[in-house]
Specification:
Beta-Lactamase; globular; 4 helices
Length: 154
């Protein structure tokens, strides 16, 4: 195993399950996930939760820098590519991506983890970082715990 991850996915999952039992609803669950991930601190500079509506990802919750990209077509940018290919995306340097949609100029890397129920993609957790290559396999695994919990709770 590598270093201890910055993000503690199990703690976030426990908080989400607790909120779910209080019947807080989808917007609150998504907002809580974004807040808890962001509160881990760097490299989690901005956290966006997009949910899939037809052939478009729609921003439903975020913490960090605002983005103009509130609607992203499937296949467009890193987020849309994740859905089109069915693969999580861990981009160490966004400047190397031809179809990159910049949320802001400070972003250097991006991690997109799909929220899926079986083979169905419900949405994604999109994390922007101001530093290159911060998302280790351990970090990605912790974010996936949160995504997997959301797939069940939403």
């Amino acid at each position: 195993m590598g270093d201890i991850p910055v993000l503690q996915g199990d703690k976030i999952v426990s908080a989400l399950r607790g909120a779910f039992t209080r019947d807080v609803g989808r917007p609150a669950l998504l907002a809580m996930a974004a807040e808890r991930i962001h509160s881990a601190g760097p490299p989690y500079h901005s956290v966006y939760l997009y949910m899939l509506h037809g052939q478009e990802l729609i921003l439903e919750a975020f913490v960090g820098r605002p983005t103009d990209h509130t609607r992203i077509p499937v296949g467009s940018g890193v987020c849309g590519t994740a859905v089109a290919t069915g693969q999580d995306q861990n981009i160490g340097d966004v400047r190397t991506i031809g179809n990159y949609l910049a949320c802001n100029l400070e972003t250097r890397s991006e991690l997109v983890v799909l929220i899926r129920r079986g083979s169905m993609i419900l949405g994604q957790i999109d994390i922007d970082s101001d530093v290159p290559n911060p998302f280790t396999a351990d970090e990605e695994r912790e974010v996936k715990k949160v995504a997997d919990a959301l797939a069940v709770l939403l």
